[in-house]
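Practice problem: predict the structure.
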Amino acid sequence: MSVDTTLPSTQQQTLEAHKQIQLAVAGAMIVAVSYGWGRYNYGLFLPEIKSAFSLSPAWLGLIGSLSYTGYLLTTLFSSLLATLLGPRILITVGGLCAAGGLLLVSQADSATTLLFGLVLAGISPGLCYTPLSDVVVRSYTKNHQSRAYAFMNTGTGFGVILAGPLALWMGDQWRAAWLLFAGLSLLITLYNWYLMPGRCNRTTSLSQGLPPLTWLLNRQRLRLYLYACSVGLASSVYWTFSVDIITENNQVSGFMGMDTQFGTRVFWILLGAAGCLGVIAGDLVRKTGIITAIRSMSLLLCGSMLCLALAPGNGALALFSAVLFGSSFVILTAFAGIWAVHSFHQRPSAGFGLVFLIMSLGQFIGPFTAGLVAELSGLSAAFFFGSGLSALLILITPKDDIRHLTPD
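Answer:
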């Protein structure tokens, strides 16, 4: 989309502002598709999948980890591809992978087909998310970049919010729900194809060559990588097993008259709604600085894990846990993006892609490790493991405080 420069300046500014709003909405919608549905639907439907395919906690954790392989591999190359192809192509292909993966899961008649569908859907965030850093840097002024990125990042919450009611409406027909998610993903992908910018004509990081290893691996950036890996490890435990531990312990059964299935959907809706608070991440960083913000949100993430680990059977704590996790997780991932783009401001997509590659590595390891812990000591032990990882985040902050997406 281009703005006609022959128009009066006031009208140009109005059109530019309208375009920026459309881009933010489109970005949030594709994040809802790639993360909210393609990445995290597995956890919401874990009890139904567990029953349909007769899988143990260790196998469920292994499938959860393997489903991150597509995400891991595509994130590895997405920053280079974003420079070569531009955001539009990468986001469109990513959206189509989500739609195809969701469709395949809806038709799965074996654990193998289920895994292939989850891996294909898992490719989506690896392709869709990294180019958004370039979209933000190219399309927004410095004062609006953090807010635009934070709004796009809340798409995870919006996707989760919608997934809960659809799952509730479909009841035991979980395959039909995944089929509907596939159709909606296709429509949203087409919307992004229409709006997102293509390849930039200016000199890009590709023409400058690949960044040197010393540029990527200096000491200050190692703290960022450790932060990203820890967020990935801790959050993947919750995304994979939270609904399962609630179902296993009937935590919401009888709470305010809810049965277990209805209660888990309410839990998921609350989680997504709280995730929409991630829109404040940019303002939070500007007002308090990223160090204070990280420590505060890490405490909330740790608390969300402890609520499920310490009080099985307490429905109120389960729902409170959803609110704590939804808000803290989305904001903590937004902080990773803000920290990455700030640190790699000369080549934002390269640094952004590397950071989320490392986060995806943590998410790859997390479910399988937690599944083994659950197999040996129960699901509560897996959540104690996650809470410990969350507590470590309090210690992992930038050496210098950050208040803007790009430095002065």
